[in-house]
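Record type: monomer structure entry
Structure origin: computed from sequence
Chain ID: A
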Amino acid sequence: MNLHHLRYFVTLAHMEHYTKAAEKLLITQPSLSHAISSLEQELGIPLFVKEGRNIGLSKAGKVFLDYVEESLDMIDAGVATVKKAANGEGQIDLAFLQTLGTSLVPKLVQEFMQTEPDKKIDFVFHTGVSIDIIQGLKEKNYDIGICSKLENERNIQFIPIAKQELVLIVPKNHPLAEKEWIDLVETVPYPQIAFSKKSGLRPIIDDLFRKIGADYDIAYEIEVDQVIAGMVAQNFGIAVVPNMPILNYVDVKVLPIRSPNWERFFYLAVVKNQTLTPAAEKFKQFMLNQRI
């Protein structure tokens, strides 16, 4: 079915006159008549009936018009969206860890938008744990992820873009609250609140305890770091967490970890060999240039 013929059909349906419709379409009347005849032959039913000097839609034509207009609207919207994407505009689906939602991500997005003031770029934000972010990238639900690096993900490219400090948080009435910094081995006697096994932070923290040759007493496992902070404040245990802004508003003591030595990174994650939209590719390159 010819797309031009469908557009001719819609114009004729609204103008109800072959000559006027042909003039508006900038084609000859015989060309318009041939196009409509081709449509009717393909469908096997008349789309128009004569009404004096004019024409009108048949019953089948009225039904067909609704579907054609809806379809053409969708096609036109799709074409416009793709053209915007080709021009560096459109939607970017960005997934990130909740921890990053109060500082790093808003800062990056705001600064990026300032570099593209004339572009219509819409961000759609998604949050989750690293394993879910990676799965979303694989399923093409997200363009870019910012998360922890996961092992054995051969189809995902991980690029470090920011360091983050890990700290120990304890209730303010805890024996360790008197300290100004902590050696991790000093935490072993106390019950701890750990990240769930789905979290990208869990293997990093487990590895820290392996470095000191000790196991830690896990009282609770939780996915969300803000919830961990709240539970520490209520004396459910102590915890190793990222040093995040929300800790300034929770009733806990924050202690820098002096040993063991470690580095914690956040990674830009994309599917290897996947072509991003121009807008998403620009944002990716912007983040790489802004590595902290």
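Annotation 1: The two ends are 55 Å apart (CA to CA).
Annotation 2: Residues 182 and 257 are 5 Å apart (CA to CA).
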